[in-house]
Amino acid sequence: MDNAIVVKAKQREEICTEIKKMMVKQLDLDIDPAFITNDQPIFGRGLELDSIDALELAVGIYDHFEISVTDDNMSIFSSVNAMADFIQEESLEDN
């Protein structure tokens, strides 16, 4: 397997882990970050978060990853995977 693919997959998993930890801390959730799956819906029947929580997550992403979330990309809050995709894309654009 291509080493670059392995490195990228490892980086992505690290980003997902950091997102989960940030979510628990930023939203003061009473849950172990390890119990949040990468594809679990964040709103609705998933973690049952609301629009105020989305704003808190946007602040958390800015504080933790130094990436701004605008109204145009609020859809990233559908899952941890969606947030990780956004963070990876924005990180590549900054480099």
Task: Characterize the structure shown.
This protein has 95 residues and is an all-alpha fold. The chain has one domain: Orthogonal Bundle (Non-ribosomal Peptide Synthetase Peptidyl Carrier Protein, Chain A), CATH 1.10.1200.10. It is 58% helix and 0% strand. It has helices spanning 3-27, 51-65, 80-94. Helix 1 (3-27) crosses helix 2 and helix 1 packs across helix 3.
Going by helix content, strand content and strand pairing, the class is: mainly alpha
> What is the CATH homology-level superfamily?
ACP-like
Our count of helices gives: 3
Listing every helix as H and every strand as E from the N terminus to the C terminus, the arrangement reads HHH
In percent terms, what proportion of residues is strand?
Answer: under 5%
Q: Supply the CATH architecture.
A: Orthogonal Bundle
| Mean pLDDT rating | 91
Give the domain tally: 1
What is the CATH top level name? Mainly Alpha
Give a short account of the largest sheet: none
Q: Which term fits the overall shape?
A: globular
Quick one: how many beta strands?
A: 0
Helix content class: 55-70%
Query: Over the alpha carbons, how many angstroms does the gyration radius reach?
Result: 13 Å
Oligomer: single chain
List the helices and strands and how they pair.
Blueprint: H1 3-27, H2 51-65, H3 80-94
Helix pairs in contact: 1-2, 1-3
Key terms:
mainly alpha, 3 helices, Non-ribosomal Peptide Synthetase Peptidyl Carrier Protein, Chain A, 95 residues, 58% helix, globular
How do you describe this structure in short?
The chain has about 100 residues and is an all-alpha fold. It is built from 3 helices and no strands.
